[in-house]
Amino acid sequence: MTNIENKPKAQLTRELSEVLAEGREKYGENLIVVNRGTEAHPNWIAVHQTQKGSGGIKTPDMFDPSWYKNPAT
Known about the structure:
With 73 residues, this protein is an alpha+beta fold. It has one helix and two strands, in the order αββ. A hairpin with an 8-residue loop joins β1 (31-35) and β2 (44-48). The chain has one helix spanning 9-27; strands at residues 31-35, 44-48.
C-alpha cells in the first residue's frame, strides 16, 4: 500500500470496507480488523475471533411457561 497521506478519504474507506466484506464472507460476524502495518502505511486484515460465551447469563424465552414465576391463572 502507498502512504496514507497520498490517499483520499474515499479510497481509504473503500479499502477498509473491502477488508470488512472479505472478513464477513470468511468468518461471518466473528472477526476483528487489525492493522498489521503502521499508521502511515496501513495493512488492514480481517482476523477470526472466537465467539465469547454468555458468562452464564441466559436469555429469557418469553414463550417458555417455566420462565414465569407465577403461572397464568
